[in-house]
Structures are given as structure tokens and as C-alpha cells.
Amino acid sequence: MKKILCFLILIGFFTDVFSQTQLLDSLQGIISKNQQDTLHIKALLNLGINLERSDLKRSTENYWAVLNMKEEPAFQKFKASAAIRLAGNYSATGRLDSVDFYFEKAEKLINANLNDQKMAYALYNGRGIHLNRIGKFEAALSAYNKAIALDHQVIGLDNVAGLYINLSNVYKQMDDQKSNFEASYKALEIFEKTQNKTGLAFVYNSLGTAHYHIKNYDESEKYFLKSLDFRQLLGDKRGESMVLGNLGNIFMDTEQHQKAKEYFTSALEMQEELGLKEMVGIQLYNLGRNYIGMEEYQLALEHFQRARKVLKEAGVSTYDAKVLADLGKVQRILSQESEAYQSLKLATQTATHQKQYSEAVTAFKNLKEYYQSQGKFQEALEAQSKEYAYRDSIGIGTLQTQLKELESKYALDLKENEISLLIAEKELDKLELAKRKANQNLIIAVFFFLILLAGILVNKYRVVGRTKRLLEVEKLRNSIARDLHDDLGSTLSSIHILSQMALHKEDAANKVLFSKINSQTANMMDKLSDIVWSIHPNNDNLEQLLSKMQEFAAEILEPKGITYQFEVAEGAEYVKLDLEKRRNLFLIFKEALNNTAKYAESKHLEIKLSIEGNMLGLLIKDDGKGFDPQQIKKGNGLFNMQQRASMMGGSMTIESLPQKGTSIQLSAPIT
């Protein structure tokens, strides 16, 4: 069955590619005859439209050819379409001086035929795309709403769906994510009915972007990959490059920086080849952000500066706040203090003025970090207050709830359609069976088939139910981790900043007290970080725990001059521990290393993690001064380690002799 399905998919793919090639060849054949008639001008226009997504230069040349044909009344609507399309090409390549000229030319041609709603739609839609691109969002919405107000039957359902996609792009830029999702699902509903591949490519990209904005990375990647399949099928290089950049953003946010770099670079090369200045500027900015994650700050600085230059040449201002915020961050890291301050202040002003709340969060966060590095704690506190105020205004949690409602509604609509179809099919089956009562074998076969199908469906619903419950638990853990980080983390951060402010004052009497507050707050922030890390579902596998253990060992032992050997059993990184065992294992390890660093006076530490059957073993052995367990008073540290071993369902042995070192051996079941 799978082989047959793959064969059918391959047939569909090659059929679409062949059809597209055949269409282009057919149009080129008509043009080569140079009849200078209606068929000739229509072929020129359609060839230009089909080349827009793969060869902008040839597309533009075709539109010029349309406009240069002789003046005849029958040619006016084709020339108006060519002028609108030409304005769109110039908008995409950053030649803004030509955009208004060709839109005005199109409007003059359309005014001669005011009743042509299709031409009015093309003009409003084209202007909306351009206005959104240059950051004039209210004007873009106005243009799209004029287009939607036209007769849907006249302009066509696919074009109506296209307008909803364009509206979703504007809402995304305005941080109105609820309207963004609603418009995207309206477009999807239409394109699912018409099975328009180009439309589905756009709407899947739009939904991927919407999910990415609220950090639903798995859903986002799913939609982007669907869009990419259609883009490659249709030979849409422009759209393909855009989706590659979007996938790069997901890999960057999930810290797969090398993979993100490859996707951004591929997108950039395609967009430079097509001459798409705005998209080139965006990819340069994305590469700059990715270089920050790779800690290659000079390269990040160079890419941000290039991005600003290219976007300015393209006349695009919607990315100003983003680029400036990250540019200021890198300048601060590279000790370019004056430049950093100017960039960050301008970023906050731009984001606030343009009502780009997501960008405002990043800008004020980076400005806060700048003030902290300069010891300006009062200003840092004010910047942090604005950061959290804008973060609250975005309301990602509310958006996720609204998205779930929209998805449920969409799924319900599809289900109702399916039920209607099933009812109709059932009626037809009854008529058919009435005519063929004699065919008992067929009835029996259908009966057994339905039983088998019912069994499959019941099993499927059970699997889906279990999966949904697991997803709900994972979402809850994500929510707890986020709330701890955002709410409690921000409060501790504020206390930490205030205590630093107090320490800088001359009142010596209070310095000891504030020093204790500062120390205790830092300790609490460290513990909170461990709790958030242990709760987050991305860290369920042992590989992530081992990485954190090695990082902690380096942080504690290396400043003390203690060498260490970290030995891990083969295949240990693939073992999964539940949240409680993972947390207890790390805290036992942490306590043991802290004791070694503080009291053991050792030169070398041996750490071994072993897996034998269903048992996990941890050995921590030092060559320090040791102690006599009978003479040392049992403190909270040793008691807590024993308690945590018991909570894991295992046991822990501590062996130590004076001047002979200490050995700690933990043994616990994996499941």
C-alpha cells in the first residue's frame, strides 16, 4: 500500500512539473509568432506572471513588452495588469521611485473602465502588498479591505483567499496575532476547497509564521515544510528562499546554529540571484542574530550593518527596531559603549513609535543589560519595567488559547462536511444494495470491512487520546517553566539590581546587610535556574543532563585547580529519566562536587556514570584529605544526598578515610 501511495505522489509531482514546463513553452511559442494581437499580449502578460516567482528579470521584461505594444482599446486591461505587476516587481527589488509611477499608470488605465472589478481588485491588492512592505500598515489594511468589499464571485474565491493571506501578513506586523490566525484560517478553508497549490503554499507559510511567533516550533516547522514542498513543486524560487529563511529561524531559536546558518545562507544566495533587496536585508539580519548565538560577534556586527544598509536602500523600515536592538547588543559586547547606547535608545524609540511590541520587548531587554553593565541600576530597573510591560501586552498565553479555539472550529467545520458526505454516500449505498440483494458475498465483505475499519478507528482514537494527554502534560511543564522564569525570575532580578544599587552607596552600616541580600538573591536565582531547567521537557533525555553536569563540573572545579576525568558509559545519552529522578541525580552530583571543592583539598576527581541493565550508577571519587564518618557530625548536605538516593529508589554509599580521599557510589533504577 505504501509503495502504491509513493508511486502516486511521484506521478503527481512529475505531472505538475511537466504541466508547468509545457505551459511556459506554449506561451513562448505564441509570443515568438509576434502577431501583435490580443492572444500575443495575453501570452506576454501570463508569461510574466508565471516567471515572477523564479526569474524576476525576465518577468519584468515581459511586462515592459506589454506596455510597449500599440494603443488599442482591447489592450487596455492587459496593460493595466502589466503596470500593476511591474510596480510589484519594483517594490520587491527596492526600486521605490518606479513603484508609484506604475501604480498611477495602472490607475489611469482602470479609470477608463470603472466597472471592471477584477482590475480594481488587482490594483488594491498590489498596493496593499507594497504598503505593507514599506511599513504603512493602516494604509495596507485600507487597500485590502477595499478589495474584499468587491463581489467575491466576480474576483474569484482563490483571489479572496489570497487577500486573507495578505491581511494576515499585515496583522502579524502589527502584533495583532488573533486577527493574523483568523485571516490565515479563512484563507486555508478556501484553498482546501479549491485545491489551489500556490495558495496552499502561501497559507501554510503564513500559519508557520504565526505559530513561530508564539513559539510553537513543532507546529511551525510542520507548516513550513508543507509550504516548502509546494514551492519546490511549483518552481517558486522566491517563495522557496523565503521558507528556507523561516526554517532557519526555527533552528536558530532551538540553538541548532550551524544548521540555521546553512538555511540562511541558501536563502540569501537565492534572493541575491533574484535581486530581492528586502529579503536579502532580512537574511543578513537573520545571519547576524545567528552569529550572536555562535558567539562570533564581529561577524554579527558586520551582518547587522549590511542589513541596515540594504533595507534602507529597499525603502523598508519595518525591521529598523529589530536590527538596531541586536546591533546595540553586539556593540555593547564588543565594548563600543557609545555606539551601543545610541543604537539601543533608537531601537526603543522606533519600536514604540511603530507599535511593534515584540520588538519593544527585545529593545528594552537589551537596553536594561547595557545599563547594568554600566552600573546604572536605576535606569536598568526602569528599562526592565518597560520590557515586562510590553511582554504582558503581547499576551502569548492568551494567543495560544485563541489559536486552540480557532483550530478546533476549523476541524469541526471539516468534520461537519465529512459527516454530510458520509450521509450522502450512505443513501447511495442503500439504493445500490436494494438493486443487488442477490449478491450476498459482497454484503458480507462490506460488513467485515466495516468491522475492521471500526477496530482501526477505535485504536486510532485511543492512540490520539494518549498523545493528547502527553501533549497537555508537556504544555503544562512548559507553562510552569515559563511562569517561574518570567514572574519569579523578574522579581529576583529586580531585588538583585536594587541590592547592587545599595552596595554602591556610602552607608557602611548597611553594606554588610545588603551584601548578604545580594549574595542570597544570587543563590536563589541560581537555584531557580536549576528548577526551571529540570522542569522543561526539552531536557528529559540524559544527554542534556550530562551536558549540564559537565558544565557545572568545569565551573566549580577549574577555578580551584582541581583536574577531573568525566567517564560516561556508551549509550547513556539515549537513556530517559523522569523529571524527579533527573532532578535528584543532578542535585546529588552538585552537592558532592561542592563538598569536594570546599573541603576535600584534592588535586584530582574521578567521575563515572555507568549503565548496567536497568540500573544507573554514579561514582565520584577524590584524592583529598578525606574524613572519619564516625567523627564528622552529619550535616544537611550528606543527609540530603542520602534522602535523594532513597527518593530515586536506590542507595548511596560514602567511603572515606583521613588522608585517603573520599568515594561516593550511587546506584538507582532507571525506571
UniProtKB/TrEMBL annotation:
Q: Say which enzyme class the record assigns.
A: transferase
Cite a single Pfam family from the UniProt record: HATPase_c
The molecular function GO annotations come to:
phosphorelay sensor kinase activity; protein dimerization activity
Q: Membrane-spanning residues where?
A: 442-459
Instruction: Tell me the ranges holding the TPR repeats.
Output: 121-154, 241-274, 281-314
Q: Which residues form the Histidine kinase domain?
A: 479-671
Q: What is its EC number?
A: 2.7.13.3
Q: Which residues form a coiled coil?
A: 414-441
Keyword field: Coiled coil, Kinase, Membrane, TPR repeat, Transferase, Transmembrane, Transmembrane helix, Two-component regulatory system
CC terms in the record's Gene Ontology section: membrane
Please name the PANTHER family in this protein's record: NITRATE/NITRITE SENSOR PROTEIN NARX-RELATED, SIGNAL TRANSDUCTION HISTIDINE-PROTEIN KINASE_PHOSPHATASE UHPB
Q: What is this protein called?
A: Sensor protein degS
